[in-house]
Amino acid sequence: MSSPTVSSNGYPFTSVQQTSFKVYSPVRGGTERSLPSAAPPRLPFSRITEDDLAFFRQLLPGRAITDPDMLESCNVDWLKSVRGNSEVLLRPRTTEEVSQILKYCNERNLAVSPQGGNTGLVGGSVPVFDEIVLSTALMNQVLAFDSVSGILTCQAGCVLETLSQYLEERDFIMPLDLGAKGSCHIGGNVATNAGGLRLLRYGSLRGTVLGLEVVLADGRVLNCLATLRKDNTGYDLKQLFIGSEGTLGVITAVSILCPRKPKAVNVAFLGCSSFQNLLETFQCCRGMLGEILSAFEFLDASCMGLLEKHLKITNPITECPFYIVIETAGSNAVHDEEKLHNFLEKVMASSLVTDGTVATEDVKIKALWSLRERVTEALTHDGFTYKYDISLPVEKIYQLVTDMREHLGDRAKNVVGYGHVGDGNLHLNITSPTKDPALLAAIEPYVYEWTSGVRGSVSAEHGLGLKKRNYIYYSKPPEAVALMGNIKAMLDPRGILNPYKTLPDNLNLH
């Protein structure tokens, strides 16, 4: 087998080369650590043999894929920044098939890369070397739905948008909404603890996921597929797997609590003259809209410029330095519109908001939401993009963008910020005409040091994957990381599940 070309931040290197740098963490009192900045060399896993292929083909007739053309999309991440060299794609339909696959792989010491919709941004869902890709794409059945409790039970490979459509027909909605909803799988959403646009209203998946079915590394099936809101019997084991990025087990089914579909939805698109005014608008919004507030998103003028330039989207209000998308969702249209009207009247009268527009019809609502949701698409047309998903204290959320612009000067083409003000999640994006190692060196580790200095998180909702695994110490103390390593060693002693991901290289897990 040929050696793969892997890129931890968009730059190729061979599988035996490795560089290191010093990491300074202000939070840790200046502690100095040396961590590799690239993927480590391939670990001593077994190589696929003809006997292995024969076993998989017998277990999965027609679903053990070795065609290079079919494997191409599984070996490359969505950003095309990481490329592996898997030669086998397995497509199970049942939990029992996943169990047999992992039992066999564990005995043979074959590494496995679990994969859902492959929409991740940190290289967590593709092989790094020649790991077997275990896809959940055919595990796409709704198993049960309780219309009284609103609890949905489904296989891990169900596409988020398909589940949303299924629920809307029954007057419910998913508590999760993402820009990648047309491709991402619910199992992958849970495995990465995806955040998204509805977190402000419905909370994180850690609260809405009631139960999981997980296959462990040795093939044992852990059936914790509970449908109870309250279950206080011992450790809450499902929480180990939410956000573990497939390193502790493969999620095969999910039970999730779904809210009723709101009868009245309003979306307001507003402009602010400063970020301080935006923050004060947020405070006022939470106070006056309260229980009907479902989203509070922002984008800066640079984002709007990219939307206008690359996607030919028209700005529906006058030009402003900052823009807000506010969504309300409730059960009484008259009541909600009155509350929203009073809020808008107050923020306009106090000059917190300089201009705005409101939509109540589906077509217009989608048009306003597109101004926030299509920023990622616009960025893809602006050049090579360095993407950072950061969680910060709300009052600091835009300061990083300002400081990064000053820090980079004219080395970057654009530095833009957008995200979820409601939960302190900034999406910092930096573009350049092409991949630029000098620019990357100026961004990292500066961005992580800055984040650590205000006690933020280097990953708010996209996980750590391959790209950020060695930056974990900026957000977690060594004792916590070591304990994570102990848990990994207990559940996956041979380290076959999604190696090179999430946990730092210095734990020496294999």
Automatic annotation (TrEMBL):
What organism is listed for this UniProt entry?
Alosa alosa
Q: Which InterPro entries match?
A: FAD-bd_oxidored_4_C, FAD-bd_PCMH, FAD-bd_PCMH-like_sf, FAD-bd_PCMH_sub1, FAD-bd_PCMH_sub2, FAD-linked_Oxase-like_C, FAD-oxidored/transferase_4, Oxid_FAD_bind_N
EC number(s) reported in the record:
1.1.99.39
Give the similarity note. Belongs to the FAD-binding oxidoreductase/transferase type 4 family.
Relate the protein's function as given in its record: Catalyzes the oxidation of D-2-hydroxyglutarate (D-2-HG) to alpha-ketoglutarate. Also catalyzes the oxidation of other D-2-hydroxyacids, such as D-malate (D-MAL) and D-lactate (D-LAC). Exhibits high activities towards D-2-HG and D-MAL but a very weak activity towards D-LAC.
Pfam families xrefs? FAD-oxidase_C, FAD_binding_4
Cofactors that this protein relies on: FAD
Q: What class of enzyme is it?
A: oxidoreductase
Domain FAD-binding PCMH-type, first and last residues per copy: 82-261
Query: What is any one of the record's Gene Ontology cellular component terms?
Result: mitochondrion
Q: Give yes or no: UniProt keyword Flavoprotein.
A: yes
This protein's name: D-2-hydroxyglutarate dehydrogenase, mitochondrial
Q: Name one GO biological process term.
A: malate metabolic process
Coarse class of the primary localization is: mitochondrion
Keyword annotations: FAD, Flavoprotein, Metal-binding, Mitochondrion, Oxidoreductase, Transit peptide, Zinc
Query: What reaction does this catalyse?
Result: (R)-malate + A = oxaloacetate + AH2
Q: Name one GO molecular function term.
A: FAD binding
